[in-house]
Amino acid sequence: MRRLPIMLAAVAGIVLATVPAHADPGIGRYVALGDSYAAVGDLLDQYGTPGCFRSRKNVANYVAAELRPAEFVDMTCGDATTANMTVAQSVTLAVNPPQFDAVTPDTDLITISIGGNDLNLPNTFGPCGALAVTDLDGNPCERYYTAGGVDRLGDRLENEIRPRIAAVLRALRDRAPAARIVMVNYASPLPESGSCYPAASFVRGDVPYLHGVVARFAAVQLEEARWIGAIGVDVFGVPGHDMCQPVGPRWIEPLVPAAATTPFHPNSTATAAIARLVTAALNSN
Question: What are the structural domains of the chain?
Fold first, then answer.
């Protein structure tokens, strides 16, 4: 079936798309929320709040193109934290409104990816590259974060990040009681083992630990989604697309990206594939 082009209007950082002629009668208002993993896709095709790096080829836009809701509001923004669901976010030359501002009681569908900036993955993994030069054959990053017998990253995930994600999802359910909420976790940036050099400056011995940290984070996202009756889409569980893979199968771009996205973030191949996972999950729930 031929689809009409989406008509866009940007107002105060909120981008509303309406497709009245062929809209799915089951989906009235669709709101997309989240951070850079939700916002990016192809940075040569950005729109909305300047500095959010919101792409017309992000996951939500592909989902909207497939499902054709009557209204589509994309609030996603790079660097967003769980706090920015209810607090405005200052970005380059603009301010992205609180993302929950777009969530109304009659919202039918919500997709969300959030929590990575609360964990601050770039700064968290930053010391791992520096430590690599001190121990090329060992696991210096793992030893750094587990010194004293306590896994500090695991502790943060359980005692700091999990409660924040849980609070966001509970508040989201309160705002839109009848909405289908879809939590999309993060694609795996690293393989389970092996060397990822030069895509990322981690030594071989630290790759399993770092992969495991993101695995635990991805599991937390889905576990908290289930508590509020949301749909979980396990992107992390799809193997073979990490940044150590060659161009083509690769979903996450390395330090020097080959696609028009930021390092360690999804490319448009990924966002299109993730959108298919989302629509498949919606069709089966």
Answer: 7-283 (3.40.50.1110)
